Each structure stands twice: as C-alpha cells, then as structure tokens.
Amino acid sequence: MSKIIIYTQDDCPPCNFIKNYLTEHHINFIEKNIKYPSYRNEMLEYDAFSTPFILLNEEPMYHVDLEKINRIFDIQL
C-alpha cells in the first residue's frame, strides 16, 4: 500500500488543491501543517522550502506531480 504525507501551510492554494484532489479520489494521506515547528523541521530535513511538499512512499516530491500520483494510485481520468 502506498503512503503519502503532505506538508502544508494555511492559505496555500496548491496545498488545498492536492488535498482536495486526493480526497476526491479516495486517497488517504497524512497532513503535516508546518505552522507546527516539529513538522517544519521535518520538512527542512529534506531541504524543502515550500509547500506543498510531498513524501510519496518516503520519496520526496518537491512539486506536485499529478502524473506520478495518478500512476502510483491508479487514478484513471
């Protein structure tokens, strides 16, 4: 089973987009809002400086790659 973690922040349109996209396709994810210092520090350990930052099966995704997400979760459009 694939695992997805999304580092987000408040008032982030791309963050909202990917969360809504995954929800619409019934994909479970873990959200970590970087307003909490521990989550911000986790994200920085990957040299990620913007949100949304995604860990897909523990592999960093520094931008939203819908093709890859669709392929891994078998989302048919």
TrEMBL record:
Signal peptide: none annotated. It comes from the Bacteria. This is NrdH-redoxin. InterPro entries: Glutaredoxin, Thioredoxin-like_sf. Pfam families: Glutaredoxin.
